Fold:
Amino acid sequence: MSYIKKPVARHPALPKNAIGLTVRDYEGSLSTLCAGCGHDSTTAAIVQAFWSLGIEPHTAVKLSGIGCSSKTPTYFLGEAHGFNSVHGRMPSVATGANAANQDLTYIGISGDGDSLSIGLGQFCHAIRRNVNLAYICENNGVYGLTKGQFSASADVGSKSKKGETNEARPIDPVMLAITLGATFVARGFSGDKGQLVPILEAALRHKGFAFVDVISPCVAFNDHKGSTKSYMYTRENYTQVTEADLVPLRREIIAKQVAHEATTVKLHDGSVVTLRCPEGDYDATDRGAAFKHLSELKERGEVATGLLYVEESDSDMHSMNRTAPGDLVAPDWDLLCPGNDRLQSLMAEFR
Amino acid sequence: MNAPPTAAAGARAADRRTSRVNDFAIKIATVNGTGSASANGMLMQAIFRMGVPISGKNVFPSNIQGLPTWYEIRVNGDGHTARTPIFDIFIAMNPQTYAKDLETVAENGWFLYDSTWPFDPELLSGRPDVTPLGIPLAKLCQENFKGSRTRILLKNIAYVGALVALLDLDMEVVEGMLNEKFAKKAHLLEANRVALKLGGDYAREHFACPLPIRVESLDKTSDHIMIDGNTAAGLGCVFAGATVAAWYPITPSTSLVDGFTKFAERYRTNEDGTRNVIIMQAEDELSAAGMTIGAGWAGARSFTSTSGAGISLMNEFLGLAYYAEIPSVFFNIMRTGPSTGMPTRTQQGDIFSTAYASHGDTAHICIYPADPGECFTMSADAFDLAERYQTPVFVVSDLDIGMNDWMVPRFSWDDDYVPDRGKVLSADELETMEAFYRYLDVDGDEIPYRTLPGVHPKGAYFTRGSGHDKYGRYTEDSVLYQEVVDRLKRKVNSSGTTSPQPIIERQEGAQFSIVTIGGCDRAVREAIAHWNEEGVAVDFMRVRAFPFSPAVEEFLREHDDNYIVEQNRDGQLHRMLLLETDIEKKPITSVTSYNGLPLSAHHVRSGIERKRA
Structure:
């Protein structure tokens, strides 16, 4: 019963963000997902990211397709409009909504089933169009709602709960997004909120399409031995390629120990992402090098996480279109309708 | 296929040799990609500017270059501009199709061909009534112009020159058009003048000019324009305040967004170069539908334009928009189906599939323009209806209306028009409300209030295509589910009294009635005019919207004999009238045409007379 509201009792000591809201103000209805589902941890990270950025909940728009992951927008930002659309087609609905009103913050929630099969085309084209959207793919390698079929992200050799071995090659959305020219590509793990929250914050602040793949294990159908998307497998094999931190424009910069190899990327709104590379020489601003490095990690069976590629971007779909500032919901009528006088002069061209 | 001409049509054919001013048809056969379109357009425009009613039908292949293509021009001083299937003079520029072309030449007609190349006299052996008019067009152009492309293009102008002489067109008008067209290209102006003269001089020297079929100036077009329906609809969307367009190219709908883009560039561009519009070429029709719906949900006036195959692809989204109650406008420019069908031929084959698009119980508001004039006005109607009823609205046009140039009265716009944005709550209204429920009918008109993202925290709701109750909450409860879908049915049905009402014209002592739809209008009216000449009165109704207005059923009940004329095989309007009204089967009879060509009065008459025999 996903519409059940959570109790509103609040601990008086809950910290408030820049606009005076507590983290509870960013929550939604009670989750109906299975206990221990990776998606619930991702939801909690999204709540945390929105809270710490101090975004007014009702200025956010949350959209999803169909599947377990796509149910989650009910579980966060109860004061934001949400849209649970059709399977794999969330990107087009988000694109349309963003086209109508570019002044809101858009977050799209999808999964590997939703994004990488029926939704693959729309996923690619949203990247190509550079829609200003944080696109989260909660990736568990399996179809949960239909009870355990492999998804297109299942690795070769991964075993299903029934014991079948997947032989089809996986589609890796991170590699795909980098190849397609996405300007922000990251991967997190639902079991590592400390890493995921700053990535989500940066994704929400990034102008243009920001892709975050979150390995988010399915406790019901894909958390067993032999699965390469289980909690245990991910914990044993994930490599943190970068550690990101976001310094939002409005937040006072707190003195912090930053390793000498840290790189900083300034986002469109003035926020700064600092990237540290625990392993040394990873350059998340070099698309070619990032692709090569990630390919090598992949070959070794490691799950690379972190903010994997980012490029300063001040353009998006609207800049390509030359859209006037503001929304296209209700501009002044005079700006929209040319009126009868101009129509009459136009008529002469059809004589 | 077409039935044999009626006795009346035969009688008219008999006087073709006698002088017939302003009442004839021309058909031009060329090869596509040779630039004949602008020459044919020029011919049309010249006659139109002479004040004589005219229509043009482009019968073209789904191909870029090299296949046969035809252009039909009908000149009719009485103002009948439906297609006519018989042609008094044939301009046969494509030897590949000579034999086929000859079959459509009227009795005692003319056959103008390029005599540069040998012409087999055997071709005419079966048609001794036809007069050949050989003009060495290619040779004339070869001798006078340089460059093969120039020669090909100017050959088209040369046949126009011949027609100026043969049909007695006003040379001053033609000169004026050339001057306008080539105002900035002096060398082209001169070449075109020479080409016109070459054709004209040859015709005057070798044939008795003018022919008995000829044009005489009238004053019947000064209040009119020549425009195609897609351009008109694109313009209508600009005037209606549409700000978001999402589309995927598909014949014959592409030129609608082309038109919108052109007019938006002109009327929606600010001084700093920014635009009050966004136009997105989607990756497919599914995405175009999703974008349109997403933008409508966020509050913009959004639309997409497609054809039948696109509507099939959009079906899943259409059900979502119906059930989640999202305003959105869909133009369906119908072409011949099923499947890929004949992409460059016209048909009204999607009446059914549009009205009931998507799985589950659905019904959509559809409006049916008859000509480019209605394409313009119905664009605004569509956005008003979509936002008023919070549902997808279809403007169901077709290739004939959308891509052919029609003569229609000049458009006008009411500057007092205020868009109906429907029941949308403002931030102030939400602030004073205790609670907002998305699908609750609070005032008994079957239409709930809606809110837009970003306006107010109290307006937030979760939109879903899954089962929901009237509060917008997820449900799998039978009663709560039914409560919503029952209201949806009542809501959409209630549009029947506010959508464009049927056009009804009654005649005293009518022997029967004709009910029709969309682009059939002109052919049906012409057929009725012919019946009237013979003393037969006929009542007329053109349905303009679905769900049907109560007036539709009343009209059907008034008559013992209703003929439903439409352009598809299965009589889709006929079936819908049976389904959606309580009228009995007997007094309504289906008359169809589905050959891919625009309907003619001849077809209407022969179809109905056959059924009445």
Notes: Chain A touches chain B through 65 residues (CB under 8 Å).
